[in-house]
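User: Sequence recovery, please. Input:
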């Protein structure tokens, strides 16, 4: 068996652990592995394909990022090419990819990625390409698995940042607004906000009323607590949609879309008169060594993907469900987002702790 491995979309702590598990599990069966560089671009004549054996994956479990590289612009069905006049247009190169896969003599593909990569893999499966997927996203919003690797590390990073903000916020009697990743699902904001003793947590799943947020800050002021920590998922949205969407960058510059954290911070300062500062944690949440939990989960996913190949169980994604690694058909995964249930125990806990969720 000749197995190709691809890592696509945004990076996440634990990708290298998956790669190592796939390579070693395949090697112990007498199979060969190859890494497709930069998502699928390595099969489209750009970055290339590299052989992967025990020597190439030695000592990479604890490393962040991916040794294969990744991109979020390599969709073979909507491949972007630049025209001679400098303009860009999309073309379908999926047939080129399938042909290159077959010409390379590969028997199976392990595609490691989030919702976009899963959609691509499902479409390639429909074209006859034998694929097994591993879910990857720090947002933890992939359907069909209760947990994706990278999430635990991202939450740990965010919680540590929130912990450190408490002392400076209290010293200066400021409101600190922390914007975290989570475009469609607020798992990172919810878990780190509750763990980091935030006063307000705003999620995409719960449209917020900015006045309710300000009421919480005013109540803390009245109680002698002259600082507040507000955690905002990047995809949080106001109930009435009236918070300004454009952020002025300065005289003589072009206005651009402002982040939700800065919008919330400006609204709080205008309404309460409090001094407000904003921190956008950004790609720090993607970086660093994976936690023990993420390393183990990634290794389990990688080994399970090879077992699925051995069973010829293509067109599926491995996932964690009820503490067991399971196989889920891709058609039951793509196009669906795993959002925070509004009646979940963590949401209920946040409310009982007095954390304001904006509603």
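Assistant: Recovered sequence (359 residues):
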């Amino acid at each position: 068996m000749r197995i190709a491995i691809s890592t696509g979309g945004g990076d996440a702590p634990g990708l290298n652990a998956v790669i190592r598990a796939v390579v070693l599990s395949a090697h112990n069966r007498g199979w060969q592995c190859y890494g497709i560089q930069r998502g699928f671009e390595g099969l489209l004549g750009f970055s290339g394909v590299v052989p992967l054996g025990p020597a190439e994956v030695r000592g990479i479990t604890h490393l962040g990022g991916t040794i294969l590289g990744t991109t979020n612009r390599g969709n073979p069905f909507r491949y972007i090419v630049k025209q001679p006049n400098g303009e860009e247009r999309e073309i379908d190169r999926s047939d080129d990819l399938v042909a290159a896969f077959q010409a390379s003599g590969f028997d199976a593909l392990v595609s490691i990625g989030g919702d976009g990569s899963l959609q691509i893999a499902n479409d390639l499966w429909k074209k006859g390409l034998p694929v097994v997927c591993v879910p990857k996203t720090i947002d933890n919003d992939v359907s069909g698995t209760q947990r994706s690797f990278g999430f635990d590390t991202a939450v740990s990073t965010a919680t540590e940042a929130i912990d450190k903000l408490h002392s400076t916020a209290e010293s200066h009697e400021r409101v600190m607004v922390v914007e975290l990743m989570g475009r469609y699902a607020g798992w990172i904001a919810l878990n780190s906000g509750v763990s980091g003793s935030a006063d307000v947590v705003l999620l995409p799943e719960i449209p917020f009323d900015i006045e309710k947020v300000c009421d919480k800050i005013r109540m803390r002021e009245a109680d002698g607590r002259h600082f507040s920590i507000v955690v905002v998922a990047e995809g949080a949205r106001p109930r009435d949609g009236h918070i300004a969407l454009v952020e002025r960058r300065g005289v003589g510059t072009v206005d651009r879309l402002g982040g939700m954290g800065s919008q919330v911070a400006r609204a709080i300062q205008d309404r309460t008169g409090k001094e407000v500062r904003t921190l956008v944690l950004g790609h720090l949440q993607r970086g660093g060594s994976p936690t023990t939990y993420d390393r183990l989960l990634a290794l389990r996913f990688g080994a399970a993907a090879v077992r699925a190949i051995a069973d010829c169980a293509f067109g599926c994604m491995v996932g964690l469900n009820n503490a067991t690694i399971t196989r889920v058909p891709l058609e039951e995964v793509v196009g669906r987002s795993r959002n925070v249930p509004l009646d979940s125990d963590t949401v209920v806990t946040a409310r009982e702790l007095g954390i304001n969720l904006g509603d």
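The mean pLDDT is 92.
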